[in-house]
Amino acid sequence: AAYPTDTLIVEVVAPGNKVVYGQPVEFRVRAGGVLPANGKISVTAKSGAESQIEILPGQKEDSLFVGQLEIALEDMTYTIRLGDAVSSPMILEVIPLPMVEMQLDVEIPS
Q1: Which position among 6, 27, 42, 75 has the lowest Cβ density within 10 Å, counted as fewest Cβ atoms?
Q2: Closest Cα partner for 68 from 83, 51, 82, 84?
Q3: Quick one: CA torsion of 41, 10, 2, 50, rounded to 10 degrees?
């Protein structure tokens, strides 16, 4: 349910809804209204494992909060908390790396 807040989550700039398996995930969230000193992203992996990521104002822009998950191993949902604003849960799909298979054919010269 939406309710009035002093802090606004204006836009989730990154990561979008898909990330690559085994890679770090950078979160970038644009905020408005009353800007807090920091925020949190609550992440729940498909397996049920939970973690918290601190997001801090970016160096170039106070309204852009940045944080990073070290490695993406499985699909997850996440919720952003900035000041008194809380986002709806969002889904992040982890895309497997492409697999390359090689097949060699040996031809013996006649």
Answers
A1: 6
A2: 51
A3: -10
Task: For residue 63, give the DSSP letter.
Answer: T
Cβ atoms within 10 A of the Cβ of 80, count? 23
The Cα–Cα gap between 90 and 15 comes to: 11
CA distance 35 to 84: 10
Q: Which two tokens stand for residue 23?
A: 């890679």
Contact 9, 29 (CB under 8 A): yes
pLDDT tens per residue across span 44-64: 999 999 999 999 998 888 899
pTM for the structure as a whole: 0.81
